[in-house]
Amino acid sequence: PRRIDLRATDGTDFKCAALGSDRHFPFRRYAARDSAEVHVFEGSVDALSYATLLRRAGRDWRQYNLLSLCGVYRTKAAEMPRLPVALGQYLTDSPNTETVVLHLDNDLPGRLAAQSIAAALPENIRCLDRPPPCGKDVNEYLCSSVRARSKAPTER
């Protein structure tokens, strides 16, 4: 593996990359068939949650390119917009990419990162900003939709 992320399991907010990890090679899932579209998430759990949402909607999640950015950074006002290294590497490895679909978080860093990425993408690549319709991130949206579905009355 080229990238390993460490997370706490004891309820603390510990997050870091393992020594020697390379941000150019995050969690990613290539589509089973050629696709000129990539769906981009802040974390791997959001990418996997999106795949679950697709499956629950009856769609084949294996037909989608999924890419985690391993978090986002907050740009300073004076900085030029730039692509996260993970997305830049993906675009280098997949030059046929025509569309980037951003599913970044519904918080300030996520919204600012979406704007910065959209501004930094080459003009020949279309960018769609699709944050989750509710909740902080895609995983939280999945969890809320599962809870809502389990509370719905059952049909007989």
Give a verbal description of the structure.
There is one protein chain. The chain has 156 residues and is α/β, with parallel strands linked by helices. The chain contains 4 helices and 7 strands. It has a 5-stranded mixed β-sheet with strand order 3-5-4-6-7. A two-stranded antiparallel sheet has the order 1-2. It is globular and about 50 Å long.
How does the SSE layout of this entry go?
Elements: E1 5-7, E2 15-17, E3 28-29, E4 37-41, H1 44-56, E5 65-68, H2 85-93, E6 99-102, H3 108-120, E7 126-129, H4 138-151
Parallel strand pairs: 4-5, 4-6, 6-7
Antiparallel strand pairs: 1-2, 3-5
- Kindly state the mean pLDDT as a whole number? 86
- Portion of residues within helices: 25-40%
Strand order of the largest sheet: 3-5-4-6-7
> Rg to the nearest angstrom?
16 Å
Low-confidence stretches: none
- Our measurement of the CA-to-CA distance between the termini, rounded to an integer number of angstroms, reads 49 Å
**Sheet bearing the most strands, described?**
5 strands, mixed
Shape: globular
Quick overview of this protein structure:
This protein is of the alpha/beta class. The protein is 31% helix and 16% strand.
Keywords, separated by commas or semicolons:
156 residues, alpha/beta, 4 helices, globular
